[in-house]
Design a protein that fits this description.
The strands form 7 sheets. Strands 20, 21, 34, 35, 36, 37, 38, 39, 40, 41, 42 and 43 form a 12-stranded mixed β-sheet that branches. Strands 22, 23, 24, 27, 28, 29, 30, 31, 32 and 33 form a 10-stranded antiparallel β-sheet that branches. The protein is of the alpha+beta class and 1219 residues long. It is an enzyme of class 7 (translocase).
């Protein structure tokens, strides 16, 4: 019973998706709420502030756990490692507000779709439903499934038949109203946040609240100048942040505003056609595509076809042809019926309709699939509004450090209380002085200081035309140790050059036709296929489409014309375009070709085909093009040349892009039969026509950048949708795979009826084939291990299909392959994202660089995604480069490393600055004293404030070092640095504090002013000072004038300057300190000023700084002590703590190894004599492969996180792994 109760109050939202949430049910208790209200009043609102920071505490304090069905409040928790909480109120929607009668009969559904969540959610006879709104998505309580379900979309369980049968005639007026009430408006509304709201959110940040408390205390004690400076700095920081957030809010609002104002024409059952605003659309509505327009929702095309510009989604403004959902009688879900290719029937929100092609006399129609934030564009906007939180050790370690400093302040607070109470000082003064010591340890300039490095880096990146929408990721770029690259348009040039065609005849390849010869392509089936098998369209007299299709079509020298030209004469279909030989084309017996039917290209199918009519012929032709390996499967075996694999390899190994063509004649009588043809019937029993060879050249920067990354020990990986052999050749030509390295092809196959899933390993070797030319072939020797002399120089290459099989059936084998996997070809967009995530699970910091086409998911998933496209799709990418080559990658890593080192330096400095002041102030507190306001001010404003604003402006070092900077604050070198510097500071200050009391001229000034005056002549070189000093001696607590403060102040001030110098690390991640002119000048100036004040005898200076003149020998002693401390600290920091070789020796000596998953795998595999396997086949049942079938890939039921990968994922790295 108890188990059932636990299950009732907890459920999962978006199960198995990236934004998965746990939801817990709670019921508000009036008594608890009243008690919290009283407590909030009594604590002057502090409790409300705590509840604002910790919403879960508010729920736990005011509510009790209850079943979700009865909850009026829900607590949501993310299922990632951050475990963030969100509180939401459960609201009720009442159907009684609708202006027409509604049946209260429980047996009678309110919407035609019987399985709809809406029918399950509405309670009868109350006619109400319960819902919550989470991250712009509405969820309603499903009374049948007993969980919250998403609304605003059609269920995936619908079959093709259901969609055509239930929705093709439109919805009734009543059903539309019900759906609109439940699903909400079809609008992507981004509220422009009011400035006051943004301001309050910033001001209520915990650190700013502590800062406000600190500054209030300091102002009450008369420490005005520094407090005002910090207030001004904080106000500027808050105003800039609010301005930036406001600008982003306005920009995003403007981006989506027009989407909500589109006028659409819908079909209402029983009422005909209606025109309305797009925000009133509901899932299930049928609307008419008028022609050129922007899609206001996601929809399924049910009648006619159209051409879309999906640049918003893919980053490429290439026309995409959409086909209607077929009429199928089976009950299979419509997405499953079309497999991965279901997108060819879906029109996505925000994409542009370029052209519509009605199937008959009626208009082109589509059924609304998803509305509002459920759409593709809504998802893109949500990813910007609610970005994935950064899991970076620096930020969690920084919080721990601040907590430590705060604890140190608490110790100081109780120490001050003890000292002042012992001397029987008034409670008011005691508490004030204790609170002052509490605030010394946590510098109020900390938030501004930590962001300065990022701001400077962002400014430098902007000069290099790299723009950033997520500045916090710049620090993360400093840790990148693996970069994934797309191939086409990223490593290689965007465009393809035609090299030649290789036609076939009589089952043999014929002579190559070279385009470089200038001769036109001879007429034949291959020429007809190249002229017609494409998705090009004619728009305003210009041919538009995929660059590959465009280049191929241009190679035929044929032209496109509108269908009205010679239409009657040709007696073709009402196709939009016809294709005719151009003036430069070879003589052809065919006057024109008309494309009658098109089966679009899809990356999952790797092919496309068309049904075409040739003028003067009474039958039709099928032309097909695609990946050669795929296309050969659809051809009659007797038409495929026997040397096809060798010929294909010959070209792909030279880096050419190869496309194959096939053809068959159709004996159909009329055009209506063409429309009813299935793809399966069209794409069968084809005749192989030949190959088109295209050249894809490397960009001139590619080789140099990859070499630079390799020398910096940064792994490079290629993830492409292109042919595997081509990808391998490009990797070798670009030296992503260095010369002499071995490549092992990994080919995995799905399980069949009696055969389990298998993985085959084939070793590829280089062999000289003519002077200066390498040809690659499959080694057929029966070797099981690579030659020993090759060591670890091997690289795995695989296709997307093999990756998917490994992911599903060889999960324990996948990490072993990934640590040396370099080439991933024929990868779909989803597989690209999955691969990036798998690399992250191995504790790699992953960068992804792509041109936006099909890379959006991977760009968002990576720690640092760099888009080379400026299309709308790149909005979700953290970085965008306006220079369309990969030079941006090393620039970004250099700036990331410099920003990271700057953040560490500033953090160490501020920690030491707080500790230096804490020790000095604590020593003075022992005799009820403290430093003077101007003494504090010089340290706080002249040194700390200016240091924090200038230390980070040192530029990045121009050469990438072969190792990364430390990625965590809690690492031995950094902790020892702070600890040892604290010890040096403590020793010098305590010794100076005690030693000054031993001097013959010393007296306790604040107690014995007469003694001080009598002894003045002993140490003052300016006798006129004597009579002016008695006025400053005071007996009240908090007195400033003393020999102790005069001795400690120059020591602490010089210490602040020296630690700023020591912690401002230059090479290998930043340029030397002297190149930062402002910072260097500042340190020299402050040091000179401090020494000048120390040795000067000017009355005005000493009175102003509240110092006492001492003997020259004592002043020299102070300077010598400060110099010795600097030399010791500098030697320890530079020769020991920053000595990478020494730390590596210590790690090896004591057996400390990296806790990163990929390091552990590398170590294990290096010791495994049977790895890597070559020229053998393993099956998923073999015990040695750790047989494991990952059902989470196939099923919507996810597995527990810990079981998805063998060994799990280490989220915390060991202290000793920073190097």
């Amino acid at each position: 019973m108890e188990e059932k109760s636990k299950k009732d109050h907890r459920a999962l939202l978006n199960q198995g998706e990236e934004n998965e949430l746990e939801v817990f049910g709670y019921q508000t208790q009036s008594l608890r709420r009243a008690f919290c209200l009283v407590a909030s009043v009594m604590t002057c609102g502090i409790l409300l502030l705590v509840f604002y920071w910790r919403p879960q505490w508010r729920v736990w304090a005011t509510c009790i756990l209850c079943p979700l069905q009865e909850a009026d409040t829900v607590l949501l928790r993310t299922t990632d490692e951050f475990q963030r909480y969100i509180r939401k109120k459960v609201t009720c929607l009442y159907l009684t507000t609708l202006k027409f009668p509604i049946s209260k009969n429980p047996e009678e559904p309110l919407v035609a779709d019987h399985h709809s969540v809406i029918n399950h959610a509405i309670l009868k006879p109350e006619l109400k439903l319960r819902c919550i709104q989470v991250q712009k998505i509405r969820y309603v309580w499903d009374n049948v499934e007993k969980r919250f379900q998403k609304v605003g979309l059609l269920e995936d369980s619908h079959s093709c038949y259901d969609i055509h049968h239930m929705f093709s005639l439109g919805l009734t007026h009543e059903e539309r109203e019900v759906r609109r009430l439940v699903c909400g408006p079809n609008a992507i509304e981004v509220e422009i946040q009011p400035i006051w709201k943004l301001l309050i959110k910033q001001v209520l940040n915990p650190f700013y609240v502590f800062q406000a408390f600190t500054l209030t205390l300091w102002l009450s004690q008369g420490y005005i100048a520094y407090s005002v400076a910090i207030i001004i700095l904080s106000v500027i920081s808050i105003v800039l942040t609010v301005y930036d957030l406001r600008q982003q809010s306005v920009k995003l609002h403007n981006l989506v505003e027009d989407h909500n104002k589109v006028q659409v024409t819908i079909t209402v059952k029983g009422k005909g056609v209606q025109e309305l605003e797009s925000r009133l659309l509901v899932p299930g509505d049928v609307f008419i595509l008028p022609g050129k327009c922007s899609l206001p929702c996601d929809a399924i095309l049910i009648d006619g076809s159209c051409v879309m510009n999906e640049g918003m989604l893919t980053g490429e403004s290439i026309p995409v042809t959409k086909t209607p959902l077929p009429h199928m009688e089976n009950s299979m879900p419509w997405k499953s019926h079309s497999s991965e290719d279901y997108r060819k029937h879906v029109l996505f929100c925000g994409t542009e309709v370029i052209q519509v092609k009605p199937a008959g006399q009626g208009p082109v129609k589509a059924v609304v699939l998803r509305t509002g934030y459920n759409t593709a564009k809504g998802d893109l906007v949500r990813s910007i509004l609610y970005p994935r939180p950064l899991n970076f050790k620096l930020y969690s370690d920084a919080f721990k450090f601040i907590v430590f400093l705060a604890c140190l302040g608490v110790v100081g607070f109780f120490y001050a209380l003890g000292v002042y109470l012992y001397h029987r000082i008034s409670p008011r003064d005691t508490v004030t002085m204790a609170l002052l010591l509490l605030t010394v340890t946590v510098p109020p300039v900390l938030p501004a200081a930590l962001t300065t490095g990022i701001v400077y880096a962002q400014k430098r990146l902007k000069k290099k035309k790299i723009f950033c929408i997520s500045p916090q990721r710049i620090n993360m770029c400093g840790q990148i140790n693996l970069v994934c690259f797309d191939k086409t348009g990223t490593l290689t040039e965007d465009g393809l050059d035609l090299w030649g065609t290789v036609p076939t005849a009589d089952n043999c390849f014929q002579e190559v036709h070279s385009f470089a010869s200038g001769r036109p392509l001879p007429w034949g089936p291959l020429c007809a296929a190249m002229a017609s098998c494409h998705s090009l369209i004619l728009l305003d007299g210009t041919i538009q489409g995929d660059p590959l299709d465009l280049k191929m079509f241009e190679g035929t020298n044929w032209i496109m014309e509108d269908c009205n030209v010679n239409f009657c004469k040709l007696r073709m279909s009402d196709s939009n375009i016809i294709i005719k030989p151009g003036p430069k084309a070879n003589q052809s017996p065919v006057e024109a070709i008309s494309i009658l039917r098109q089966f679009p290209f899809s990356s999952s199918l790797q092919r496309m085909s068309v049904v075409a009519g040739l003028a003067g012929e009474d039958h039709f032709h099928v032309y097909m093009k695609g990946a050669p390996e795929m296309l050969a499967k659809f051809c009659r075996s007797e038409t495929v040349p026997r040397n096809f694999p060798q010929e294909l390899r010959h070209y792909t190994m030279q880096g050419f892009r190869v496309i194959a063509f096939a053809h068959k004649a159709l004996s159909l009588g009329n055009l209506s039969e063409v429309e009813s043809l299935s793809r399966e019937k069209v794409e069968s029993d084809l005749t192989f026509l030949g190959l088109l060879i295209m050249e894809n050249r490397l960009k001139k920067e590619t080789k140099l950048v990859l070499k630079e990354l390799r020398e910096a020990s940064i792994r490079t990986v290629m993830i492409t949708g292109d042919n595997l052999q081509t990808a391998i050749t490009v990797a070798k030509n670009s030296e992503m795979i260095p010369q002499g390295s071995q490549v092992i092809l990994v080919e995995a196959n799905e399980p069949e009826e009696f055969v389990p899933a298998s993985v085959t390993w084939q070793l590829i070797e280089n062999q000289e084939n003519g002077p200066g030319k390498n040809e690659t072939y499959i080694n057929i020797e029966n070797s099981s291990v690579l030659p020993e002399e090759q060591g670890n120089c091997y690289h795995f290459a695989m296709s997307g299909k093999s990756y998917q099989v490994l992911f599903q059936h060889f999960s324990s084998l996948l990490p072993k392959i990934l640590v040396n996997g370099t080439i991933f070809a024929r990868m779909s967009p989803g597989q690209k994202s999955s691969l990036v995530e798998e690399f992250q699970k191995l504790n790699y910091y992953v960068g992804m660089c792509g041109d936006g086409a099909n890379d959006c998911g991977a760009l968002k998933m990576a720690h640092a995604g760099i888009s080379l496209s400026e299309q709308e799709a790149s909005v979700a990418s953290p970085f965008t480069s306006k220079t369309a080559n990969i030079e941006c990658v090393p620039h970004l890593i250099k700036e990331g490393r410099a920003a990271l080192v700057s953040s560490f330096g500033v953090f160490k400095y501020l920690t030491m600055y707080g500790i230096i002041q804490f020790i000095g102030t604590s020593l003075l507190y022992w005799q009820l004293q403290l430093f003077g306001n101007y003494q504090y001010m010089m340290q706080d404003i002249a040194i700390t404030l200016m240091v924090c604003l200038t230390m980070s402006s040192t530029h990045a070092y121009p050469k990438l070092a072969p190792y990364r900077p430390a990625g965590q604050l809690l690492s031995p070198p950094l902790l020892l640095s702070v600890l040892l510097n604290t010890c040096f500071t403590c020793i010098v200050q305590v010794c100076a504090f005690l030693y000054v009391k031993q001097q013959p001229w010393y007296c306790e000034v604040y107690r014995y002013s007469e003694c001080f005056l009598d002894n003045q002549s002993n140490f003052s070189t300016n006798m006129s000072l004597e009579r002016n000093w008695t006025g400053n001696a005071t007996l009240i607590p908090g007195s400033i004038l003393s020999f102790e403060s005069t001795t400690l102040w120059p020591i602490t001030t010089i210490n602040c300057v020296t630690v700023a110098f020591i912690f401002s690390k230059g090479k290998p991640f930043r340029k030397p300190i002297y190149t930062n002119y402002i910072f260097s000048f500042l340190l020299i100036t402050v040091l000179g000023l401090t020494v000048f004040i120390l040795f000067s005898d000017f009355q005005v200076i000493y009175r102003g700084m509240e110092l006492i003149p001492t003997t020259t020998s004592w002043r020299i002693s102070i300077l010598v002590a400060a110099l010795i401390q600097f030399c010791t600290a500098f030697f320890v920091e530079d020769a020991i703590l920053q000595n990478r070789v020494l730390w590596l020796l210590i790690k090896n000596k004591f057996g400390f190894f990296s806790k990163s998953q990929y390091r552990n795998w590398q170590k294990k595999l290096a010791e495994d004599s049977t790895w890597p396997p070559t020229n053998r086949t393993d099956y998923s049942g073999d015990g040695q492969n750790g047989f494991y079938i990952n059902r989470g890939f196939e099923s919507p039921e996810p597995l527990p996180q810990g079981k998805l990968r063998q060994g799990g994922q280490t989220t915390q790295q060991h202290f000793w792994t920073r190097l």
